């Protein structure tokens, strides 16, 4: 991926050859300027690679226009951000309903969409906070709303950008438990993090340096949740 022209050109990513398997939990690490955000934006269909291909669910995303990529994002990709990115004057329920409203394959009525959103909020243990606005929720609760919103369309892949970065240790552990639960249900997880301890939650950590893959650290079998077998 190249930004700028002439002497100001910056090669954000070079020679990236990466396969993420369905149902895998992968973390992306590296210092500032290593290309983490660029790689995340390409994987999330926010940017098109200058060269090469991005294939998601058997479809070459690299050939799609802006509108087509937006449809793919809404239908197949869920995003969790460090800063939550919730609508500030909108309660938790309506924040979670929003992706359903933009899903072209959604055939649910407004009542059914709200029921679906309420189910997601219950899953992240916020059933008693569905009518609260973000400023009435703690950081951990806001991140749980963001997770419910990311999952409401049953995405194939969940992209988490520093999902515990603004949280205290206890809240961060709760968010990681939720992410593991989603992965155990079959959702592919791609997580960007600076935290080595958080990266150890993933099956493998992809370390970037100067826009290239420096090393891949295999963390072994995914964490097994309490009550889960195998």
Describe the 3D structure.
By secondary structure, this protein is α/β, with parallel strands linked by helices. It has one domain: Rossmann fold (3-Layer(aba) Sandwich). It is 33% helix and 18% strand. A six-stranded mixed β-sheet has the order 6-7-8-3-9-10, with helices on both faces. A two-stranded antiparallel sheet has the order 1-2. Helix 3 crosses helix 4 (110-123), helix 3 (92-101) packs parallel to helix 5 (139-151) and helix 5 packs parallel to helix 6. The longest helix has 16 residues, at 169-184. Residues 1-10 and 222-230 have low confidence and may be disordered.
CATH class annotation:
Alpha Beta
What is the typical, i.e. mean, pLDDT? 87
Using the coordinates shown, work out and report the CATH topology. Rossmann fold
Give Rg in angstroms.
Answer: 18 Å
Q: Biggest β-sheet: count, sense, barrel? A: 6 strands, mixed
Helix content: 25-40%
Task: Provide the CATH architecture.
Answer: 3-Layer(aba) Sandwich
Shape: globular
State which percent range the strand residues make up. Answer: 15-25%
The CATH H-level superfamily is P-loop containing nucleotide triphosphate hydrolases
Low-pLDDT sequence parts: 1-10, 222-230
What is the domain tally? 1
């Amino acid at each position: 991926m190249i930004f700028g022209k002439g002497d100001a050109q910056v090669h954000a990513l070079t020679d990236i050859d990466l396969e993420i398997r369905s149902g895998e939990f992968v973390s992306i690490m590296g210092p500032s300027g290593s290309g983490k955000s660029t790689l995340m934006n390409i994987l999330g269909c926010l940017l098109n690679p200058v060269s090469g291909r991005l294939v998601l669910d058997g479809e070459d995303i690299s050939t799609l226009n802006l509108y087509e990529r937006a449809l793919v994002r809404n239908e197949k990709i869920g995003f969790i951000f460090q800063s939550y990115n919730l609508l500030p004057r909108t309660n938790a329920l309506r924040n979670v309903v929003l992706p359903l409203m933009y899903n072209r394959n959604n055939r649910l009525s407004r009542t059914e969409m709200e029921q679906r959103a309420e189910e997601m909020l219950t899953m992240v243990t916020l059933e008693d906070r569905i009518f609260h606005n973000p400023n009435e929720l703690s950081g951990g609760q806001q991140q749980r709303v963001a997770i419910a919103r990311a999952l409401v369309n049953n995405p194939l892949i969940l992209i988490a950008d520093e999902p515990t970065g603004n949280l205290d240790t206890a809240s961060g552990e709760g968010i990681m438990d939720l992410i593991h639960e989603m992965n155990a249900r079959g959702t592919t997880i791609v997580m960007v993090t600076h935290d080595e301890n958080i990266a150890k939650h993933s099956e493998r950590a992809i370390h970037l340096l100067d826009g290239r893959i420096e090393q891949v650290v295999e963390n072994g079998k995914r964490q097994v949740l309490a009550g889960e077998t195998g």
